[in-house]
Amino acid sequence: MKKIFSILSLMVGLAVFGQKIPTVSKTEFTQKALQDKVVNTERSSLTLENVINQYKGNIVVLDLWATWCGDCITAIPKLKELKAANPDVKFVYLSMDKTEEAWKKGIEKYQIEGDHYYMGNNWKNDFATSIDLNWIPRYLVLDQEGNIAKYYSVKAEDPEVQNTINKLRLK
């Protein structure tokens, strides 16, 4: 009886609290979302639009992560493999850490190479809401124009991430 109760509790918990894959795959960011502010490692404030515009002409993998997120930390080796397999792709990390100090320590501790921006631990900002953020890590692939080519992935080793990168190279 205890075993059945445990299984039912787990199923209900997953149904209530588990991640839900968005039913719509968006291909662009809203203008309001692009106006959200981030801070770079030099402590300069920028809008997400400024950040995305810097990479136009390149394929970009956006990684939303945080040092407090166990799944994010576990995913780092696979993310590094993805990055090594795609040296022509820009990797941009958007941190949702609770503090800038934790974010900067995490970059150093986990030796994450790429361009880093601090968003703060705000799941309700316009950017997070616009991309239906419900789980981290979250990976988006942007095309050379800054549009969203792969909208939803929570695993760096998701074959669709690499397939999307490969298709974009043919553009």
Automatic annotation (TrEMBL):
Source species of the chain: Faecalibacter bovis
Protein localization: Cell envelope
Major localization listed first in the record, in broad terms: other
Protein name as annotated: Redoxin family protein
Annotated keywords: Cytochrome c-type biogenesis, Disulfide bond, Redox-active center
Domain annotation Thioredoxin: ranges: 15-170
Lineage of source species: Bacteria, Pseudomonadati, Bacteroidota, Flavobacteriia, Flavobacteriales
One Pfam family linked to the record: Thioredoxin_8
PANTHER family found in the cross-reference section: THIOL:DISULFIDE INTERCHANGE PROTEIN DSBE
Coiled-coil parts of chain: none
InterPro entries: Thioredoxin-like_fold, Thioredoxin-like_sf, Thioredoxin_domain, Thioredoxin_ResA/DsbE_sf
